[in-house]
Amino acid sequence: AAGDLAGEITGVTDGAGREFRLVLTTQAQRAEEARKQHTASLFSPDTPRPLSASAFPDTLPGTEYGPDRGIRLSAVWLMHDPAYPESLPGAPLVRYTYTEAGELLAVYDRSNTQVRAFTYDAQHPGRMVAHRYAGRPEMRYRYDDAGRVVEQLNPAGLSYRYQYEQDRITVTDSLNRREVLHTEGGAGLRRVVKKELADGSATHSGYDAAGRLTAQTDAAGRRTEYGLNVVSGDITDITTPDGRETKFYYNDGNQVTAVVSPDGLESRRAYDEPGRLVTETSRSGETVRYRYDDAYSELPATTTDATGSTRQMTWSRYGQLLAFTDCSGYQTRYEYDRFGQMTAVHREEGISRYRRYDNRGRLTSVKDAQGRETRYEYNAAGDLTAVITPDGNRSETQYDAWGKAVSTTQGGLTRSMEYDAAGRVTTLTNENGSRSEFTYDVLDRLTEQRGFDGRTQRYRYSATGQLIRSEDEGQVTQWYYDEADRITHRTVNGDPAEQWQYDEHGWLTTLSHTSEGHRVAVHYGYDDKGRLTGERQTVENPETGELLWQHETKHAYNEQGLANRVTPDSLPPVEWLTYGSGYLAGMKLGGTPRVEYTRDRLHRETVRSFGSMAGSNAAYELTSTYTPAGQLQSQHLNSLVYDRDYGWNDNGDL
Q1: On the chain, which terminus has fewer CB atoms closer than 10 Å, C or N?
Q2: Among residues 468, 459, 412, which one has the least CA distance to residue 440?
Q3: Domain locations in the chain?
Q4: Which residues lie within the region annotated Disordered (predicted)?
């Protein structure tokens, strides 16, 4: 740029080759434009007083940061798009206006709709005293003499008051709930070290000399510690209150290369020289590999999972997925408009879906390949207000000023909701006029629910927010937890109910309860990768421990890590055969094929062969067909005993 804009950036070209023009204006230009508009308005019936030079000065005073040249960004235009060279927007992507003091006044989107508005204190330039979003009420702010916000006024929700003292800030909302933030440090290192919550509980935080979080103590006094790399600040380990530790490892680029969980299992990640993910190994040992087209590609061209199945992805120059080819070579294609919004999805078997948007980018229509269209309507704030189905039926939703749904009408029936100032649902009235009411504590947790049938349920919580007690018409249930926040047992009206037990890895090993005088339990076994290998059900005499009955089911996995076999007690194993990444192709019982599946290009079942022997000698074949829209159309059995046909209306209802 030259002249008054010398040294300013007026154009940007992104990595995809799109060119943007940044329209900059000076204070003098904006003042001249304001005077022209004022002169034009003199011919209107309501003639204002002449606009003085001081009302919109040609220059701005300096600030504590130095001179203000008055240069502001007024608009951003897309000037060149390699993918849509002949279809450039006829309006700016975004537009900004400013006050006579150079303060941001309004923001307009690409449809020229005002989406943000700001108001400032005339006596204190740059101090925002109100702002609002399109279709929403105005939020207002009050300040003290030091320029600190002391009140935030929300006409449609919670308002807040702020009180500042030495090393602490008190925040009180319009429900008179109070939080106190205690701070320590200075010179950019001030941190909240204690937070007093509205229920009187408190949490604490600790930091190192660089202001990085090193410990947190919850409301129950339990401490979690964070180990940090002294140079990079990366978290190297997290130790929870029960002493269990999670460790993190990094490469020279500060990318996570391994995570070792408290149970000893490890997940790993490897990267290439540019820092792109090339392999990812799960806790159970399965590895996914990523390949890229060239040294400059940021998105993978293929992924290969532990089964050896490869998926291919094709991307646009803007990072949008254009095509996805699954492990069987079947492809899904995607189309987009010039704003990057998806306009069409084309799947195998001729199934397509098309989307349209308004000039604000909101979805207005979804149409299938048969021309059946669902339409959407919105209010000024962007809330979805109506859905019109293909048969013309209309469902509507109304909202309060803050965007919370207050009623939904469908088929002539209305369901309504009421809220308190904190935005919590207090009353739900269903379509037949029955009401349910809800009550909350000062931490927004549900404490009482009165149902439409008059039944009342009450809830209590621990200091850390866990449900510890519920009451339901005289039935009192209590929950108990260990230091790792895992549930350990439950009582009902004081009598023992379920019990949960865990091993040293933290894996659930036993779930038990007493039933009709017997101890009934399920015991779980795992392999060294943490995968479930067995479930043993037992019934015991709780007094003597005598085993009265048991039944065990074993689970096995193939070399690729997929579950493929279940063996119940005293029965032949059931084994399932898969292809690709796990699509079911058949099942065996005791090594003998019993069921085989034939699938289409969407991997939907089309033929199921079963009977005395699966395959060519099958006694039965169940054939499934689908509509052009992808819905199940028929299921015909070759014995004519089981034939079904399905009909659907234009809305997709059975």
Answers
A1: C
A2: 459
A3: 572-654
A4: 31-63
